[in-house]
Design brief:
Elements (H helix, E strand, L loop, with lengths): L2 E5 L2 E4 L4 E8 L7 E7 L5 E7 L6 E3 L7 E6 L4 E6 L8 E8 L15 E2 L3 E6 L1
Parallel strand pairs: 2-11
Antiparallel strand pairs: 1-3, 3-8, 4-5, 4-9, 5-6, 7-8, 9-10, 9-11
Length: 126
Amino acid sequence: QVQLVESGGGLVQAGGSLRLSCAASGGTFRFYDMGWFRQAPGKERDFVAAISWGGSSTYYADSVKGRFTISRDNAKNTMYLQMNSLKPEDTAVFYCAADPRRRSTGVGRLDKYDIWGQGTQVTVSS
């Protein structure tokens, strides 16, 4: 059973940086398409970024382009999200997600991903 565990969240001032990690266990991580999503209180879960199984393709929501960078280290079974120039509107619970079947469904769609982590809270103060 594949499990995903996020870490690296916390409280940061506007303009600051955080790096989130998503550690995978129990499966063949290197073959999975991966994504980051976030959910603010009272709002839907939204796409943030995605990375293909080999790491050659990355995708970003318009709201984070130029500020966030997604990456992965398949040798460590870990995906990362480097977040710079954070804004109060980035405050949310961040979730990582895995698509072991590498379906052609759009990378920003929730239903592309079968496996989800428990989430890590990111709070950006103004």
